[in-house]
Batch of 2 targets.
Target 1
Amino acid sequence: MLVLVALALLTIAFRSPTTGALHDTQGLISSGLRPFQIAAARIAQPFHDAYDYLDGLTAAKSENVRLKREVRQLRAEELANKALAAKAAGLESLLNYEQGKTYPNGYRAVNAAVISFPAGPFAQQIAIDAGSSQGIRINTPVVSGDGLVGRVTNVFADSSVVTLLTDSNSYVSARDLRTGVRGLIRHGQGNSLILDQVAKQLVVEKGDELVTDGTRDPRYPDLYPYGIPIGRVSSVGIQDTASFLQVQVEPFADLGSLDSVAALVATKRR
């Protein structure tokens, strides 16, 4: 019945003339209801505004969560790219050294990644992911793209332990490229290096570059071939009570942040 009444009223409204008693009645009813419509709109407006605010707040929170997730992902990708770039720089440096003029004759390079670092301030050894199956043996020299790192002191099938230059048991015969002065590279205070056994009357100056001295007599082959860069003289001192110069050396290789190295395997049995 309500549907029928509604249809009848709609029919009358559409067919009624623009003037007359019915039209006037409609106008009076509309005018009478106008204040109630305004009041209802004003009452509903705060609820409508509150709904819009809550809806916008929920959307903003959701967007904030999404953006934070994207930022975390981008940061992770950035760190990964930086790590890859650092490794790529090390490998490029190794490649440049292997193709350079100072690379020793009679040796092939076995490139390897560093898989473990010194466990403490007194441990001066690293592990690499190459071993006897790649031709590495005890005392095989190990270099980075910048200079000498140390030598292999323990070897397994697919990994090796490398003792660094800064180890207390490490000794390397070295030569000053500028003056030809020879000495012995060994560890100094802390993790520094010194050029020892240099007589006080000889000339060594700050900034001089040092390389491995190599073999002087075939009957007594040295562990390291000639010409591997070791480091640069950082200071020279003289003490009245000392027999030798106090020569401090800064290594070329950054021994604290090695990612990749090369083991120099002799191509002929020595």
Note: The mean pLDDT is 84.
Target 2
Amino acid sequence: MLNVAQALRGSGLEAIDARVLLRATLAVDDVYLIAHAGDALSTQHEAQFRALAVRRAAGEPVAYLVGEREFYGHVFKVTPAVLIPRPETELLVELTLQREAQRVLDLGTGSGCIAISIARARRAASVHAVDQSAAALAVARDNAARLNAGNVTLHHGNWFDAVPGQRFDVIVSNPPYVAADDVHLGQGDVRYEPRAALAAGADGLADIRAIVAGASARLSPGGWLLFEHGYDQASRCRTLLAQGGFGEVQSWRDLAGIERASGGRVPL
């Protein structure tokens, strides 16, 4: 029978992955793992942890194995129906909150992490979230309820078709932006994530083009469009925004120094 420390050392996983999986197995935190390093695991817990370790070693994302991921200070439920929230996407939340918008639209909401994080920070704002996947919206709905984001309204549909006739102060999106033949789609965690939420045409910009083309008609005067894109797409995205009639076009860098988000403003 293994103790806590032995289970962590002998998992064959990276230390951070082993800790996350053992925390989930025991329903404890890191402090407990440290304080109880010599405690023996029950036969049931040892079997559960070994099973999770095998699945992780085979490539399954930790977030899907434990069913959750932290984002912007909140813990979100995640399933294989949604993208796994990533730290760089928190930049979109920050950019939106800087604009003090009263009506916000999140396109392709997935787990709801962007919309719910904005709604929690701006309780007086009306936040709308769209996804064409009913399974993804079910995850977002659960997250909104668990995190008490009552000012989020969910819509099922394709981009702007889901919110006919409505206008917003900010439209924000983390859309698919990977080229359909990109080799990274067959590597790492993304192998397990929904392809429709990742790939967008031959150059990865098909959905961004559609969003830029339709956003002006959905924005209030002076409203902003903000979206995430690939590490090498910023220049092309700024060109699309300028061609679409947006002003104040710019890109913003994530914590790694990569131009990760771009946006522009419609005229007042």
Note: The first helix runs from residue 4 to 9.
